[in-house]
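Re: the 322-residue chain
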Amino acid sequence: MYSLEHSSQLPTTIAESIAQIKTFALQEFEREIVQKQLYYHTRDHVNNVQRRANQIFQVVCPYWTVPNEKTTLDISRMKLLLDLCAIAHDMVQVFVVQTQAHTPRARQPGVSEMATIDRLLDYINQLNQQFQKHAPTSPARLTDQDISIIRDAIAATICAYDHIEQAIYQPDLYHPHKSLSPVARILALADIGALGIDGVEVYHQEGSLLVLEENLDLIPLILDGTIYSLGSNNSELYQNIQKRLLNRCRFQVNFAKSRFARLEREIADFPDDAISTLTNEVFKHLNPTTIQEVEAKTPTHENTTLEELLQFFEFERYLKKH
């Protein structure tokens, strides 16, 4: 599907190979953004995940480094693979076919991630076939271990729903018989780390963008102002949208509490000397004060009006940027 037969020149270093694969992933992703009308899963998101992953990496990698050249090279390769996974992890977005009007579009857990893995590894395998054909001993070729790390890292971003916490989490971080690579653990934490690393404003911004992405029927109503007259013109749709937005607000409060409650366990496998820095300097916003702020700013009362919810989400602000 992604033929490399006419590539004029193969990469000569692993860094060049990773750069080429990232270019491919971004080109595929750009098509998805336009075709699927994505508002949250965009270049901004993957850039933010890459930045957050790098913050975590910079804290933990010194504790893996020992004074010999081999380990230093492994750390360098790990960073290249982490950057690639951060850029590529949301490359394909698969939505369930909607059968009812005025309902959120949804993804089945793991489907988008596995489709991303398949498409990315198909390209990598084609690149490796070219190496096998023209430069079989090239150091630029991705190894089986590299491919395994990429596969496991993107899979680690798959989320499941915890019905007790009423929030999502990443099951691979808790699998008792699965040994995650550092790349996988860092990527997973960075992917849903907006509140802990970036704070409440970014957390709310990401929530608003997700609502837009999952509720495309709201966009024309917002853009033409119709949504503000639904109370008098279409009470059924008014109640429908009010309920959807209220449910999202409640989820955001529960998700914030869940992120705070789960942090200690999710970073426990990092080097002991790094954990304090991760807790106090990287995930510095995951504390009771932040949770109280999220609760105070997020409308969750049953009687919250649609107008109040729209004011909270600030959709117009984000639609102007698209």
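Strands lie at 160-162, 167-169.
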